Amino acid sequence: MLRQSSVHGRKILSAVLGLLLPGLLLAQRGPAGLAVTGTAASATITWQPVVGGVSYSVKRWKQDDLRCCNNASSALGKPTWTDYGASEAGFTQAGIYVFEVTVVMEDRTTAASVVNWTRPEVAPAPVISREALTVKTVQTLSLAAPAGVTVRNDPSALVFSWQPVSGATGYQIDAAPAPEGPWTPLVSAPIAAAQFAYTPAPALLTYYRVSAALSLAVSANSTIVPFTYQAAPLNPLGVSAVQSGADVTLSWNPVAGASGYSMTALNGGTQLAQLRVMGPVTSATFAGLVTPGLLANVYGYVGLTRFLSFRVTAHFPPGNAPGADIPETGAATLVIGDPGICWPPAGELPGGPGQTIAPPVAQLDAVTLSWPMSGQVSAYRVDRAMAGSGQWQPLACIRPGSSTFFSSKSKSSTVTEFRDESIALQPSTSYQYRITAVGPPDATGKRSTNQSIVLATTAPRLSVIVGAVASLATSTTHWARLSWQSPMGNVRNYLITSSFGLRADMSRRDPPTTFQAAAPRGTHTFSVTPLYLNGTPAATTTVTVVVP
Questions:
Q1: What is the pairing mode between strands 307-316 and 260-267?
Q2: N or C: which end of the chain has fewer CB within 10 A?
Q3: pTM here?
Q4: Domain tally for the chain?
């Protein structure tokens, strides 16, 4: 009998180690920063997001009794989870509980970490009379409504936050299609945290109600906020590309909340290269992108020009979700030239008369230059500097008789055109442009060059003038209407946003331009931002709209 008991004990020990060892072995590379807070009613576990992680799962058991209190939750998209105990009855047994968090990576491999949590001691329930219980119920229902309720669009969810309510032990969140209901609970029981994430259907105006609670009794006081969920923040606006030798550098306007950016270089529909950068950066360089094979025959035939296009995508936590594009604003096009011609490796022989450059055409978002071909020119190099600074920046290498932008007008093969659409251009600012003509090589391989410099001043920045009109279309639908005069310049479209989460893109129309959208009752702020041809946003105009 003793021998059988010993064998049985070893089997139990082996089973216990089989449960614990995988988690212990994986803990070194699983999610970091595990922390647990809570009460006997619930426990919330949080951890740091794992780069490249697709989803998470959480297991829980009691340290001193592996058969007790086991639970699991999988396919979690956020680095947090609230555990309400067995059958949502809380943690009825005192002691130490073990939580194991497993991350599933993009390649379907997994890694796990564990953390221990000691359930806080529970004070014995006081014996109260029916009269006291009645007073308690009345006090619960009179809790103040949560103040400071805010909503923001994250890539994967709406995130609600509010100020804690004195005396409350939890909060209830409900949703409805109208401010009068019907209301649908978004949580099965009041939550302890003053923050909540939820993913509704996108582009629908929904009303959300946040109420304070004491235990499971919910107060009659609540705060109602309307909001429209957008599935993803926008990708960068104002993307521009410049060539310097074999390298191409991209620049863009920053995107709030982005954890990093990815860039793609395309030759027609074929992907040439990709880059990924992390943090709040606004430029990156494709080193050695322009190769001789990519430029085969570019200079051998009149009218043959090689264009490359570039796209920039913003990524957001927690799962590196990509941003959304506004049509035609997230890409840049660049005509490329042979680095060996524009930037000769054997050196240059400066001299000779410069080019005759036509008066520049300067707008807020672009400067257009043109000049005739002269003599034996292999290529033109274009540089830019702020007037008087002497700090020249390379912009492009272009073939004689070609254009760096598409035009509906026919061009003479004896005229070369260049259009600078960089987001670096500032309104009402003077810039110098240097055109360097690069000739054929001599016996030593050096190429003759000559230079001309021209001055251009960009146009002043213009804002839209917005007038707001709010009207009631029917007894059930409310509308906000905006109208404005389009500013002069190369405005392509408008970005319209609102304080209740609305986001819309609207192409330019003949003035006046009118925009109308369903809106909740109340006072709201609308913003109208013109986007120029190069995707650069102009000054934003805000207006307050009262919807009755």
A1: antiparallel
A2: N
A3: 0.63
A4: 4
